[in-house]
Amino acid sequence: MKMNSFYPLFGGVRHYAWGETASAGTVPYIANLLGVDAGTEPWAELWLGAHPSLPSEVVVDGSRRQLGELIAAQPIDWLGKAAASAVEPPQLPFLFKVLACSHPLSIQSHPDEASAKRLHVTKPQLYPDANDKTEIMIALEPFEALAGFRNLQMIRRDLAAVAAFAPLLAAWQNGADADSLKGLCAALFAMEDAPRQAMLAAALAEVTASGHKRNPAEELFVRLSAEYPGDRGTFFAFLLNQITLQPGQALFLAPNTPHAYQRGAGIECMTNSDNVIRAGLTPKAVDVETLMATLHFQAEGAMLLEPERISCGAGEVERYVLPTPKFQLAFYRDAPCSVDELGDGIGIFLVVSGRVALSVDGKQVAEAGRGTAWVRPAALRNAMVTPLEPGTLVAWAMPNF
Ligand SMILES: [Zn+2]
Question: Against a cut of 0.90, is the pTM above it?
């Protein structure tokens, strides 16, 4: 087929338990975005991409086809030359999502390329693909997350303030990696279930005792314990940075960085992978061996990724460039977008708010409203996405080879 237009893209929705559920006066972000009735299910993620576990569909010549199949049939026309030759077999190198949560996700990290290849062979039931996973979260509303290890001195100070942790601290100091984050995590993971649960229950009783003034780590520990009592993930309240993103702010997560999203809605984009190494706050399997072998046990500095801002007419383009060529993002706020400026590569875009006109060779071919997603095949040139009303935000994901 000749790819000379934009094509509507229909993503799948994940209804994970940590998603947002309709309640008095509030509609889940994703159901609201898509303009559909939320029902009683939790709404967690909208997937726009070609990952085999939830592939999106594209309408071409009046029929719905999977994006991945279309790409496989005409890789250069869809992906562009550079992206088509970067991965074998040719495939969409990224997965674009809207994520919304009102409960904490599991504490997790994602593998780098070498670990992903190895894990997919040795533990395929836990690691469904052989791809590394680098991820970015751009807030659409205030978004709370835990990410990266805190400074070791601060961790030690906060743990020492809770008497129930004394035996764990002693085990840490007498262990192989005393005075390191790795040694502390090893001591935690080495504890049997019963003594660990008893320790966490005693710690909870201590920090919730009347008259005890809680610090932010303790506040979080209490909150996580209410949802996951006795889970070792609650201990990570003392270990990880608490970050609140404002709309437009982005959190960049390199492979092997511990994190857990807490609350809010945002655009998430990642390399095309669903590999999650879990550490806690989950009924799913926790892979201690892989965590201890792969986590970056060091305090993280600034993890916020500042976009490059380009003013454009009455609006602005915010470009989020990452240290991987597999994807980049661009937010067009009240700004027209010429696909020729985006370069020779596939683009997926979502109308987050407002309305746009899609035109090819100077002629309008469609109007696109809030919540609609589209694909721009690499072969499409001389085409525009133009805002039709103030407050229009279009989020693009595309490769950066
Ligand atoms: Zn993640």
Answer: yes
